[in-house]
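Figure S7 source data.
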Amino acid sequence: MNKPGDKKTATAGSDKIFDHIVSSVLPTKHGEFHIHVYQPSGETVEHVAMVKGDVSGQESLLVRVHSECLTGDVMGSLRCDCGEQLDAALAKIAAEGKGVVVYLRGHEGRGIGLANKIRAYQLQDQGRDTVEANLDLGLPVDTRDYQVAARILEHLGVKTIRLMTNNPKKMKKLADCGMPVVERVPVLTAHTPHNIGYLRTKQEKLGHMLDFE
Ligand SMILES: [Zn+2]
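Tokens for the predicted zinc ion complex:
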């Protein structure tokens, strides 16, 4: 958000939402995507949209809104299922030939930041669960805001979405931000001895819809 005295606030004089938007073709192991980089006005964080096919004007478009998770997405951590969900989303969009992954930076550990996420891991090693650990640290359980995701989808011309998520609250938050969600598409990932406790907590305390059969 802009702060008083911020140079951009002083000079903008417009209702510009993003300071920069740039895009290019990005070949991936899931085929060719277009990568779009968005920087919200007055912020330093850069978000990404991975776009497959012509999405402008689309209804019921397959979409994943993914929160950055360095350990899971990049390092292959088994403490969570983020990397697997991201991979599954890109693969599903590639198979369908059309869709968007909005990749939100600054969402580490449901919004507490990377260092705090690792502090929470220390507490989880001592027996706390993912929700208790945040609370022990005096931090909120979930501070993620989906406003920017809705604006990015709007900018791409997307009308309504089928959201790939196990989290019904994310559907509601996106809808509240003005991006109608017509359907939830479950994201199935493997349970491992490392992430089963984390996944159960997400189901029991955060309302995620997971199948442990
Ligand atoms: Zn993760």
